TrEMBL record:
Residues 23-276 form the EAL domain. The chain holds residues 403 to 680 of 686 of the full protein. One of its GO terms (molecular function) is cyclic-guanylate-specific phosphodiesterase activity. It comes from Marinobacter zhejiangensis. This is cyclic-guanylate-specific phosphodiesterase. Keywords: c-di-GMP, Membrane, Transmembrane, Transmembrane helix.
Amino acid sequence: AKTTGRNCFQFYVASVDQEMRERKRLEKDLACAQQKGQFVLLYQPQVSLETGKIIGAEALLRWEHPERGLVPPDTFIPLAELNGSIVDIGRWVLDQACYQAAQWAAEGMPMRIAVNISAVQLRQHDIVETVLETLERHQLPANRLELEVTETTVMTNLEDAIAKLHRFKQKGILIAVDDFGTGYSSLTYLKRMPVQHLKIDKQFVRDLLVNEDDTRIATTIIDLGKSLNLSVVAEGVETAEQEYYLRQRGCHLAQGYFFSKPLQSQDFESFVINFHDK
Ligand code: C2E
Ligand code: CA
Ligand code: CA
Ligand code: CA
């Protein structure tokens, strides 16, 4: 038993050590990923439950690692936030997303584009200028851009974040509260945030109509949105039953595998055309 214990201990140390080295290597690769053109933006359609039309897309980042394949954002974005590279990556995402939205508009397919903004980005003193400059460069109207921020992002730097959100709003840029209900939620702060959209996190949508608590939470968020005059977006919609329930309840927009997974830009274009032809 003694030996086993000792072996286990050594194994444990070895694996922690390996994990550290693994993380370091990933960080090193991440540092040149942008330069090597390994980032890709995918676009997931957002569907109006009132009209059945696609009104826009959420831009979702992918890292195509030459050896590891697709590295999911949940793995590398926390790393990029820790070492600060999220600022450059975020700038690239914003530029790419605005370029694409302007391109679609020029092709007669105007779409609103939603971009995820991390807390580190929102903390940058020149974030508002960066965003405005990007819109300008691509000649994209401000109301075609939506920034998705989480409550946690706003809460970590409350006064500064709210001031910046007001400046975005003043310019006509839309703001969505992402992952609503999963972070520190405070209705007092929500009232102070100049937002237009609440996004119901997929964790409440997944077991919608199966789990009573989740059904109540999702329904409560829809009702809250109505009473505060905010549009509600459900993410992670996977079934016709979920779509039907959300529509009946007056949820405005939905995105999820039921409609489409996140797509490459060309696939998004053909998807929109087919979807509206149906
Ligand atoms: P999020 O903003 O909450 O994005 C929703 C996630 O749900 C996405 O995961 C999307 O691909 C996934 N999803 C969409 N429809 C369904 C569905 O029907 N079922 C299920 N199970 N999942 C669905 P993804 O693309 O892996 O992104 C994970 C997270 O990474 C995002 O969560 C967001 O927080 C972050 N992220 C992604 N792109 C960016 C970015 O450009 N910048 C920043 N700062 N964060 C990003
Ligand atoms: Ca999001
Ligand atoms: Ca979410
Ligand atoms: Ca095209």
